[in-house]
Amino acid sequence: MNTKNTPNTGPIHVIGGGLAGSEAAWQIAQADIPVVLHEMRPHKMTAAHQTDGFAELVCSNSLRADDHTGSAIGLLHEELRRMNSLIMQAADATRVPAGGALAVDREAFSSRVQIALHGTPGVSIRRFEVTDLHKFDGEDVIVASGPLTSDALSESIRSLTGADQMAFFDAIAPIVYKDSIDFDKAWYQSRYDKGDGSDYINCAMNQEQYNAFIDALLDGEKQDFKDWEKDTPYFEGCLPIEVMAERGRETLTFGPMKPVGLTNPNAPDKRSYAIVQLRQDNNLGSLWNMVGFQTKLTYGEQKRIFRTIPGLENAEFARLGGMHRNTFIKSPELLDATLRLKSHPSIRFAGQITGCEGYVESTAIGLLAGRFAARQRLDMDTTPPPGTTALGALLGHVTGGADAENYQPMNINFGLFPPADIDDRPPELKGKRMKRGERKKARKAAVCARGLKALSQWIEDTAS
Question: What are the beta bridge partners of residue 289?
Answer without folding.
Answer: 175, 279
